[in-house]
Amino acid sequence: MPIRMAFLGPKGTYGERAAKEMLMLEGIPDGELVACKGLRSVVDHVADGGCDCAVVPVENSVEGGVTASLDALWSHRDLCVRRALVLPIRHALLSSGSLQDITEVLSHPQALAQCSGWLATNLPGALQLPTSSTAEAARMVRGSRFRAAISDRSVGERLELQQLAFPVNDVPGNCTRFLLLKRGERLREGDVASLAFSLNRNAPGALVEALQAIAGLGLNMSRIESRPSKRELGEYVFFVDVELPNSGAHGVLDALEAQLQPLCEHLAQFGAYPSSDLS
């Protein structure tokens, strides 16, 4: 049976492009890509065994963390991260009409935010409508002369849409980091390790104590982000990425867990993994 990899569909999303790159990096020439509707569904597909692995966006260089992916990871703390990939994001404005006729712009909320400056300058009166993915937005505007989609330009070619402008993202270096998720044993070697934790107490210095435990091991944090625990106001879950040394990462991770465990109500160690940058 071929390896089944879930991604945010439909065909033509940046998630699909990231999934194809992941298959190449993992040396899987005959993997089967499974399109899902919604990021929660992507993670659920690997968590419940419907797919062998999943690819999800976790962070954008402009808009920050992808909250749906982070919340899904915390809900499935038994999953592990096997690889990270940074993908350049270049948005195009696609339509069946012309630029002066556009009154509605559709796309994923992250893509709309990444192009907010361009839209304010060039289509200030257009209504912005969120969709489940950039590719779904392109499908929905096909045949309409007053609707446009922000999507990957390759989708426009496939759906025979006009490219009204490219690129329309506000920041030229716009990129998104994707994670490859799997079930099973966590790797103990790699460039980066990811973990998430909630604290035993909501008190002054509690978070500082946890961060000092990381700093005390000489580890550099490449990312820290908080999300509401969804149990009560003011209670948070913290997601942290740490850069690992070239040698001895296994011992460092053991020491990190030993230091953090007494301070945390819940501690999720998603493992170490290699990271690739295509940007």
Describe the structure in your own words.
With 279 residues, the chain is an alpha/beta fold. It has three domains: 4-88 and 174-182, Periplasmic binding protein-like II (D-Maltodextrin-Binding Protein, domain 2, 3-Layer(aba) Sandwich), CATH 3.40.190.10; 91-165, D-Maltodextrin-Binding Protein, domain 2; 192-270, ACT domain (Alpha-Beta Plaits), CATH 3.30.70. The protein contains nine helices and 16 strands. It has helices at residues 14-25, 39-47, 67-75, 109-114, 116-122, 134-141, 153-159, 206-215, 249-260; strands at residues 4-8, 32-36, 53-60, 64-65, 80-88, 91-95, 104-107, 127-130, 147-152, 162-165, 175-182, 192-199, 221-228, 236-243, 264-273, 275-277. The strands form three sheets. Strands 1, 2, 3, 4, 5, 11 and 16 form a seven-stranded mixed β-sheet that branches. Strands 8-7-9-6-10 form a five-stranded mixed β-sheet. Strands 13-14-12-15 form a four-stranded antiparallel β-sheet, sandwiched between helices. The model has no long low-confidence stretch (mean pLDDT 92).
Outline the biggest β-sheet.
7 strands, mixed
Assign the CATH class of the largest domain: Alpha Beta
CATH fold description of the largest domain: D-Maltodextrin-Binding Protein, domain 2
DSSP E strands, number: 16
How many domains make up the coordinates?
A: 3
Distance between the termini: 33 Å
Tally of contiguous helical segments: 9
Helix-strand pattern: EHEHEEHEEEHHEHEHEEEHEEHEE
Mean pLDDT across all residues, rounded?
Answer: 92
CATH architecture of the largest domain: 3-Layer(aba) Sandwich
> Which class do the helix and strand fractions yield?
alpha/beta
Tell me, what's the shape? globular
By CATH, the superfamily of the largest domain comes out as Periplasmic binding protein-like II
How much helicity do the residues have? Answer: 25-40%
* Uncertain runs: none
Q: Radius of gyration over alpha carbons?
A: 20 Å
**What proportion strand?**
25-35%
